[in-house]
């Protein structure tokens, strides 16, 4: 907090709260510098987080789906598009942050596709507000897919991996 009282701070905080509401944000943090030893740190957040829509990584889809050559005239062709977030083995992000697949740059990843994991084993790290949060395996199984890249930004509910 500041060492001196600034009347404009109240209006500034009210404006931040309004931005939070208008843009349906859950949290906003700002540091305002006034001078060498004078600043204001403000964190505005909602007590009840707004619903968050998880976005799966973009997938390249063909413009059309050609029918198989052996299909009879009038037969329907079913094209299934798998949404990783709906997969029963999906491990999703519990928070907003940056996902890291290895404990430190240049080291081996926590897990690789095809590896067997045990319940509670660290799968990756999500950094949120300079805190490294280890994301454990919710169940034992085999890592079938890793859906994110190292150092990728993630949101709450973003599918990270598939474990079957």
From TrEMBL:
List the coiled-coil residues: none
Pathway the protein acts in: Lipid metabolism; fatty acid biosynthesis
Q: Does the keyword Cell membrane apply?
A: no
Q: Which residues form the Lipoyl-binding domain?
A: 88-164
Q: Which InterPro entries match?
A: AcCoA_biotinCC, Biotin_BS, Biotin_Carboxyl_Carrier/Decarb, Biotin_lipoyl, Single_hybrid_motif
According to the UniProt record, one GO cellular component term is: acetyl-CoA carboxylase complex
A Pfam match is Biotin_lipoyl
Record has Lipid metabolism as a keyword: yes
Q: Write out the entry's keywords from A to Z.
A: Biotin, Fatty acid biosynthesis, Fatty acid metabolism, Lipid biosynthesis, Lipid metabolism
Molecular function (GO) terms for this protein are: acetyl-CoA carboxylase activity
Q: Supply one GO BP term.
A: fatty acid biosynthetic process
Q: Which PANTHER family match?
A: OXALOACETATE DECARBOXYLASE ALPHA CHAIN
Report the protein's function. Answer: This protein is a component of the acetyl coenzyme A carboxylase complex; first, biotin carboxylase catalyzes the carboxylation of the carrier protein and then the transcarboxylase transfers the carboxyl group to form malonyl-CoA.
Q: What is this protein called?
A: Biotin carboxyl carrier protein of acetyl-CoA carboxylase
Q: Which organism is it from?
A: Rhodovulum kholense
């Amino acid at each position: 907090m500041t060492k001196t009282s600034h009347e404009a701070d109240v209006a500034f905080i009210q404006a931040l709260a309004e931005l939070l509401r208008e843009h349906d944000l859950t949290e906003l943090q700002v540091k305002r510098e006034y001078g060498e030893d004078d600043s204001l740190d403000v964190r505005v957040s909602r007590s009840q987080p707004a619903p968050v829509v998880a976005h799966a990584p973009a997938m390249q889809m063909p413009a059309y789906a050609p029918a198989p050559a052996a299909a009879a005239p009038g037969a329907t062709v079913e094209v299934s598009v798998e949404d990783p977030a709906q997969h029963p083995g999906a491990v999703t992000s519990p928070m907003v942050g940056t996902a890291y697949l290895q404990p430190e740059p240049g080291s081996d990843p926590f897990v690789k596709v095809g590896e067997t994991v045990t319940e509670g084993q660290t799968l990756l790290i999500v950094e949120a507000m300079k805190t490294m949060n280890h994301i454990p395996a919710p169940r034992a199984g085999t890592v079938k897919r890793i859906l994110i890249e190292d150092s990728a930004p993630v949101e709450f509910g973003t599918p990270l991996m598939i474990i079957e």
